Amino acid sequence: MSDIFNALPGIEVPVGAISKSLGKMWADTAAAGGPAPASEDAKATQVNFVLHLGFNTTSEDAVVQFQTAVAFSKRYPSRVVVLCPLSEDAGVTDMRAKIYGECHLGKSKGDKRCVEFVMLSYPRSARQFLESQVSICLSTDLPLYYWAHRFSASSKLADYHYLLTRAKRVLIDSAIAPEDSLTYPWPQPEALRDLVHARLLPIRQSLGQFLSRYPMDALCGDLRAVGLSHDAPHAAEGRVLLKWLKDRIGKCGQNSATFSLVPLGAGATGSFALTFAYTGGKKSFAWTGDLARGTAQFEADFGTGRTTLPAAVSLLTPEAALSEAMFF
User: Fold this and answer.
1) Dihedral sign for Cα atoms in the order 54, 60, 66, 69
2) Is residue 213 exposed (0-12), middle (13-18) or buried (19+ Cβ within 10 Å)?
């Protein structure tokens, strides 16, 4: 895990001098003619954001997630703290810190926003001091959002009680999290948000907009089965999408439809294939989506004639999925 801390950009500074070092970093940047905040208004932050890189995170993955946090902060200026825990056999006893800053223009040339990052690397022996150090790095009057990425076990993450109980939202990605991550008894389960569900927003909207054109009795009457197939890379998205469909379609009317999720068959193309089957065979619905091509197709007949409609299909970008999970 020490390689993760070393892979991330930034200037290493004493842990006890993070705030002072941030001020010096901007002063040195301005003196060198680089982009730096002209006033505190340029650093005005909207949220506190903690990115926790778990033990299953590689150096390459850490850089990708760091850049996602940077992209997110361009839209929602944040004070970002990145946690880089060390395994017990790392042979390190002290906490280390890095700082990083970046400025960019907003909607106009006069709208310059600068964001600040603090990276903390810590061994198990320094774990008891972590909450205190994190609280010093955060703005006390702003909401906290906590993103736990690639943690190895839910029970180990539960040890971070301070972050789990103080955070307005706790973000996980069930595609890469432990199997019990969505059912684990977290201190505030109502705060938990799944990034898989968030990045499915365009697909949920597209399906919802198409199906909303028909009355509920037409959709639900005689509904016998709902089947969703998925390709291998999007098994988690398939699972979450089927649950969403069950929550919406499965409870309408008095139908007792079955819901099934299976991988796409050998030789099949595309990412998803969804079908509604009806008793009597007089109604039908099918939707296919190919994320690689960005194309989808609706085919439906709810008793008023066959409709075929091409459409676009996509997932939210990682930074957009973060904002969806945090704020909506």
Assistant:
1) negative
2) exposed
User: Strand, coil or helix: what is 233?
Assistant: helix
Query: 186-189 contacts: CB < 8 A, separation 24 or more?
Result: 186/158, 187/158, 187/161, 188/164
Tell me the per-residue pLDDT of 193-223, one tens digit each, with 9 for 90 and over: 999 999 999 999 999 999 999 998 899 889 9
In degrees and rounded to multiples of 5, residue 30 shows phi and psi of: -65, -40
**CATH code for the structural domain at 201-312:** 3.40.30
Contact 274, 240 (CB under 8 A): no
For residue 136, what is the DSSP state? Answer: H
User: What is the rounded (10 degree) CA torsion for 115, 147, 160, 165?
Assistant: 90
Residue boundaries of the structural domains of the chain: 2-195, 201-312
Please, where are the H alpha helices in the chain? 2-7, 18-31, 59-75, 130-137, 154-157, 161-166, 195-199, 201-211, 216-220, 235-248, 318-327
Query: Tens of pLDDT along 168-198?
Result: 999 999 999 999 999 999 999 999 999 999 9
Residue type for position 58: T
